[in-house]
Design goal:
Layout (H helix, E strand, L loop, with lengths): L2 H11 L5 H18 L14 H35 L2 H7 L4 H38 L7 H28 L3 H12 L2 H4 L12 H13 L10 H22 L2 H4 L1
């Protein structure tokens, strides 16, 4: 069974799951406060940022600091538990399937779920901005290209974090412990982005990227610029390490 066929099988497995519904609910909940408090964006003009830019960045910051990582933690555990709960992993391992390919195929599904939620977040932004524009009589909607660029930065910078969540779910058999470690790893991000060693903590990448973008849009707010070195090499090494550990431990418990 080649990798593409294997990936297609994994996509079919999540069709009937509630993962996509969870991602959608989390995204909708995030933007409700932004709509209700749209008038507060005008007060941020004192910081040198326009209301429409502040509306976008504040919504994305809330998403990247907690809601998006938390949703991915839950999605990762649900993804792995789909196999363990029905002993599907035993059936897959009984087939002539390379466990390395199976592990990477499932991680690809996780990447797709992450991209799906980012797209949901972007779509909900436009809906929320349109509603806020009507209630506040102000054009909150920004250029789609600019919004997609910001969303793309969030997604790409989150890949090492997703690799860590996947490694945690594979290596830890108890779901509650896996979720607990994942959620606990999110909290320090807001502190670590204020240190020079932020690039050593992948869970803070997306949040750091957005705060840097915030500084570019708000003339009175000082933020650090992103230095690609050592960030990119560290992120690449961390991602490869997590995926290597995941592939080595994937299915080991079921084989015993």
């Amino acid at each position: 069974m080649n990798f593409l066929v294997l990936t297609g099988v994994e996509f079919k497995k999540i069709r009937r799951s509630k993962i996509l519904l969870i991602l959608l609910a989390a995204t909708v909940i995030l933007w409700i406060p932004s709509i209700l408090n749209a008038d507060l964006n005008f007060k941020m003009q004192a910081e040198g940022i326009s209301p429409e830019n502040n509306f976008l960045i504040q919504g994305f910051l809330g998403m990247t600091w907690f809601m998006y990582p938390a949703s991915m933690v839950v999605s990762t555990v649900l993804l792995i538990q789909t196999e363990r709960g029905n002993k599907g992993i035993l059936k897959m391992l009984a087939l002539p399937v390379n466990t390395l390919k199976l592990c990477l195929a499932k991680f690809l599904i996780l990447l797709a779920l992450g991209a799906t939620q980012i797209l949901m977040m972007t779509g909900m932004y436009f809906i929320s901005a349109a509603i806020a524009a009507q209630t506040q009589h102000y054009p909150f909607i920004l250029s789609p290209l600019f919004v997609m660029k910001e969303a793309g930065l969030v997604y790409l910078s989150s890949i090492p974090m997703l690799a860590f969540f996947w490694m945690t779910a594979v290596c830890i058999q108890t779901p509650i412990f896996s979720i607990g470690i994942g959620l606990a790893s999110i909290v320090p991000s807001v502190l670590i982005i204020n240190t020079k060693a932020w690039f050593c903590y992948p869970m803070s990448y997306s949040f750091y990227v957005l705060t840097s973008e915030y500084g570019k849009l708000a003339s009175h707010i000082l933020t650090s610029d992103i230095e690609l070195v050592p960030w990119i090499p560290v992120a690449a090494i961390f991602t490869c390490f997590c995926l290597t550990i995941s592939c080595l431990f994937f299915g080991q418990h079921e084989r015993r």
